[in-house]
Design a protein that fits this description.
Blueprint: E1 8-14, H1 22-32, E2 37-43, H2 49-58, E3 63-66, E4 80-81, H3 83-88, E5 93-96, E6 102-105, H4 107-118, E7 127-131, H5 135-146, E8 151-156, H6 159-172, E9 176-181, E10 194-197, E11 223-226, H7 235-242, E12 246-248, H8 250-266, H9 272-282
Parallel strand pairs: 1-2, 1-3, 4-6, 7-8, 7-10, 8-9, 10-11, 11-12
Antiparallel strand pairs: 3-5, 5-6
Helix pairs in contact: 1-8, 1-9, 4-5, 4-8, 8-9
Bound molecules: NADPH dihydro-nicotinamide-adenine-dinucleotide phosphate (NDP).
The site of NADPH dihydro-nicotinamide-adenine-dinucleotide phosphate has 24 residues, from α4, α5 and α8.
């Protein structure tokens, strides 16, 4: 058979994009399976976005991730959206199909649900409380609702955003939803099964911070999760563990969404443990 020197191209468009760690785990996964794929971390500003999307087709990429500020304004460029992406109103993964059409998916919330599953937990029939109402909260709320959650309660600093997300869940899914304007020392509602920090509190240089809630209202039966992945053992999770709750960190979500992208682009099962270990290595946690 003739040799094939052509690499299959994937990557991410964003600005700023320099701190995006996805490439290290995707490249580790490509290497592990011996695939001639590349993942490029690319600075694309809004005024260059149209040309970048033309390039996706022109250079026959397999697909691309989108991060800030492109997750919403990519939608008019796509031929089809997944159910979740169309409800969320944002896309983080584009797949170029064999016929050249572009499919948009949002793997953030699916990654979250899958990471919960790795700890034997599922949103089905559960009362879920989400701190935050931004992009990550939106994706998680929609996927938890589609996975059969009984009730989603959104607690957010900006009350109008909490109300908007709760309304979206009520209107577009079968789950019940309500919202709470975040108060100092916010109590977690009784009957909560799963509590999620979907804010950026505790991320990176903010690692000494944790959400301002009444931690005595976290009970031993709860599962508590954080979307923040760097550091992975956040102060929020440490406090929840001290209350006896089961904890699920943000690395699992990051790796599980990356694994879904990998499978969408290559058609192969992803080497999830290799991806998680690579991220831990990257964040100096091994
Ligand atoms: P957004 O900017 O869209 O939303 C940020 C949210 O955090 C808002 O609800 C905001 O409230 C809230 N918030 C920020 N600071 C505070 C504060 N001091 N007190 C109370 N609330 C606050 O960000 P994203 O949703 O895109 O990202 C959120 C986090 O999720 C980030 O840490 C990101 O790294 C992480 N993430 C993790 C992923 C993973 O795979 N593990 C995937 C995607 C994101 P308000 O509305 O009032 O401004």
């Amino acid at each position: 058979m003739e040799k094939n020197y052509r690499a299959e191209l994937t990557g991410v468009f964003g600005d700023p994009v320099e701190g995006n760690p996805t490439g290290v785990m995707e490249e580790a996964a490509y290497d592990a399976l011996g695939l001639n794929y590349r993942y490029m971390t690319m600075k694309v500003t809004p005024d260059g976005f149209e040309d970048a999307m033309k390039a996706v087709r022109a250079i026959h990429m397999k697909g691309v991730n989108l991060t800030m500020p492109h997750k919403i304004h990519v939608i008019p460029y796509l031929d089809e959206l997944s159910q979740a992406a169309s409800i969320i109103g944002a896309v983080n993964t584009v797949v170029v199909r064999e016929d050249g059409t572009l499919f948009g998916e949002n793997t953030d919330g699916k990654g979250f649900v899958e990471a919960l599953g790795r700890y034997g937990e599922s949103p089905a029939d559960k009362n879920i409380v989400i701190l935050g109402a931004g992009g990550a909260a939106r994706a998680i709320a929609v996927e938890c609702a589609l996975a059969g959650a009984a009730r989603i309660t959104v607690i957010n600093r900006t009350a109008s955003r909490a109300a908007e997300l709760a309304q979206l869940i009520s209107e577009k899914t079968k789950a019940e939803a309500d919202c709470i304007a975040w108060e100092a020392g916010q109590k977690i509602p009784e009957g909560t099964d799963i509590l999620i920090n979907a804010t950026s509190i505790g991320l990176g240089d903010d690692r000494d911070n944790r959400p301002d809630i009444d931690y005595s209202t976290i009970l031993p039966g709860m599962t508590v999760s954080d979307v923040v992945f760097n550091p992975s053992n956040t102060r929020f999770l440490q406090a929840a563990a001290a209350q006896g709750a089961k904890t699920v960190n943000g690395l699992g979500m990051l790796a599980c969404q990356g694994a879904r992208n990998f499978t969408l682009w290559t058609g192969e099962a992803a080497p999830l443990d290799i991806m998680i270990n690579k991220l831990k290595e990257e964040f100096g946690e091994v």
